[in-house]
Here is the input.
Amino acid sequence: MNSFGPATGSTTVSGRLASAAIMLLVFSACAGPELRDDIQPREPTYAKPPATSGIIADVAKRVAEKHDADTSGFKLLDASRDGLEWRLALIDSAVSSLDIMTYLWYPDVSGRLVLERAVLAAERGVHVRLVVDDLLTIGLDELIVDLDSHPNIELRLFNPWEERNLTSRAGEMIAEMERLNTRMHAKLLIADGNAAIVGGRNIGDHYFGLSDAYNFHDLDVLAIGPIAQNANNMFDEYWNSDWIVPSGNLTIEPDQARAREEWKNIQDATRSAAQLENLSREPRDWSADFAALENELRPGSGRLVYDDVSAQEISQDMIETMFALFDRAQEELLITNAYIIPGEPAIEFLNGLSERGVDIRILTNSLASHDVPAVNSHYEGWRDDLINAGAELYELRADAAIQSIVDIPPVSGEFTGLHTKAAVIDGRLSFIGSMNFDPRSANINTEMGAIIDSPGLAADLRALMLRDMSGENAWQVLLNDKGKPYWVNSDETVEDQPTRGSMQNVMNVIFKVVPKEQY
Here is the structure.
């Protein structure tokens, strides 16, 4: 089994490319830098050793003293505020190194906030390494080069466009679709080699409850201890991969005057952003937060799993890793995943688990909560197969009660969407990461996640997943006596799939007609 469906499928990248195409049209007259024809050779470089001083190192030491040297401590970052504030806490508290890898880094309120704090860490002597997928860096090359010119910051791009001119990016995408369709979907932050955040959140307002349009219910795990060193190994593999190109290969020179203006604009925007009214706009001392964290950490062992990029062809190991993990279930398998297009191999696999007595429950997006209607168009035909395979199927409500922890006041999004990728096996093993259960994640993107053996963390995650599947937060999808689906939540029962309006239905029909190969 190597796929959750045919390799021609797609998910969120189609919407991102559509947005990029609009930007291309708007800015088509603009010229821009290019990538050098001959990429400059480089010697491999690696993460610094774990810091032995600082708040983060102190917590790691106490975790080891309380348990053993192989044990890490874990905390789920469920609420949007936790997802953002613990990133800021690690950045503000780092004394030696800071490594950030992300698929999307938006130049919005939270994107500027995290960037500002990373630059301030570099200013105080922390070595900062940034890896960003090149998909949506349109118009940001000057900022990228200026950041990379900082003596303590290195910034590299995953699978970059060679032609940086906005118009020519579109032409290159058509000419080199197979290469440029491969994107780095990973999300990882490592501080001082002692702490890491792994999960589903990109860096942008939708992921941190700061968008007025909609916000994602997402999930990360904060890990302190040996697993952070394991994370550094992954980061180094990507950092030194031929898929990743240093920013110095852009044919544009850094400019100190321009950099000062960019820095002023970022700081001014952060100070004036109304969305940050209840958040820390300035770096602060997080000692009390780390002291409280020690009693909240769940002990366990963990490892990062990820697609190998050390060779010219990406390994696409993650799909097999997920099947192997789920196959360990003897009693219960809980899955929360934003984008699901299963395919026959997955249905057969789930049916086998069900036949041997495993209780299977799955939560995904409803059409109403979806940000990518194309996925729903090709998922909805599998609803009855998932249910007939023995799974209880749930779909997130757009008006879910958990919006209270998804939005950060004063922000109130118009609806809540699901972006979590997590699983619990037999109340002991947990998976939290970037891997969707669709063809793009299986066959095209690079993906990653953490597999954690910790009964305490698994109990926490199981409780959150069951909360999200409750009628206040989700619809249960059932089949009537004619095999047709209907939806039940705590308030009502409906026979048509829930939507936010007629336009969603129109888009759903369009994406059914358009062949998957076209997007």
Observations:
- The longest helix spans residues 256-272.
